[in-house]
């Protein structure tokens, strides 16, 4: 299945957004009468017949097939520090979307080496990963925030967890999460969270968890965390 994405989809005649229209015409060589599968990033699945198509426009006759109430029975928020190598951060976004995440909140920490990100490019990464993995929900991507602000803005009803190496007897994530819990989990940068940041997190009701005995790169830790949560919800 080749999925198309348009956040403004609705039943009836609809002009596909420019980028997707160009892809349909120039890359996939779609023609009048072809049927496309589409999602709106908010749980909606659609089918549409191409009524007119050119380099500039793709007109569709759209029918809504079904609507998912939510991505899953739980909500996962990943707070993660962007990596110095932006390719590694883009990989986090791609894989977390494929596995299943609802919100990604980039964080600025004491050891952060990347202090700027391009949300427009990163949102395109999320869109592509959503379509590739045949999902109808587009994860929300927040602006880069200082750690304290990001921690404070966490949903009050979430289980709050911080992946931290500074404690000898830190419980494993898999032993500290219950199926169905909404969760916010924070993963630090290269160099990890500082003791002061860990203390701040504790003051905001974040509990420490371990992702295993080995020291992991930021991107590995982020995906290990998301995958563990999703696996425990299968």
From TrEMBL:
Main location: cytoplasm
Subcellular location: Cytoplasm
Database matches in Pfam families: Methyltrans_RNA, PUA_4
EC top class named in words: transferase
Domain Ribosomal RNA small subunit methyltransferase E methyltransferase intervals: 75-229
Catalytic activity as recorded in UniProt: uridine(1498) in 16S rRNA + S-adenosyl-L-methionine = N(3)-methyluridine(1498) in 16S rRNA + S-adenosyl-L-homocysteine + H(+)
Family: Belongs to the RNA methyltransferase RsmE family.
Biological role stated in the UniProt entry: Specifically methylates the N3 position of the uracil ring of uridine 1498 (m3U1498) in 16S rRNA. Acts on the fully assembled 30S ribosomal subunit.
Entry protein name: Ribosomal RNA small subunit methyltransferase E
């Amino acid at each position: 299945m080749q999925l198309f994405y348009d956040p403004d989809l609705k039943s009836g005649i609809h002009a596909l957004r420019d980028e997707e229209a160009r892809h349909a015409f120039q890359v996939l060589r779609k023609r009048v009468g072809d049927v496309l599968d589409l999602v709106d990033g908010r749980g909606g699945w659609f089918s549409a017949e191409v009524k007119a198509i050119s380099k500039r426009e793709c007109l569709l006759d759209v029918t809504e097939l079904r609507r998912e109430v939510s991505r899953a029975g739980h909500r996962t928020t990943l707070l993660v520090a962007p990596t110095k190598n932006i390719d590694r951060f883009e990989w986090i976004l791609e894989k977390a979307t494929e596995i299943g995440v609802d919100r990604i909140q980039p964080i600025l920490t004491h050891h952060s080496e990347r202090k700027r990100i391009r949300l427009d490019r990163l949102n395109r990464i999320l869109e592509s990963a959503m379509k590739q993995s045949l999902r109808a929900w587009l994860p929300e991507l927040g602006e880069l925030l200082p750690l304290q602000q990001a921690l404070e803005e966490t949903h009050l009803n979430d289980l709050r967890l911080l992946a931290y190496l500074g404690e000898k007897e830190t419980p494993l994530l898999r032993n500290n999460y219950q199926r169905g819990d909404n969760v916010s989990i924070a993963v630090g940068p290269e160099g990890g969270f500082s003791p002061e940041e860990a203390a701040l997190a504790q003051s905001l009701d974040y509990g420490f968890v371990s992702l295993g005995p080995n020291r992991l790169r930021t991107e590995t830790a982020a995906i290990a965390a998301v995958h563990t949560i999703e696996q425990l919800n299968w």
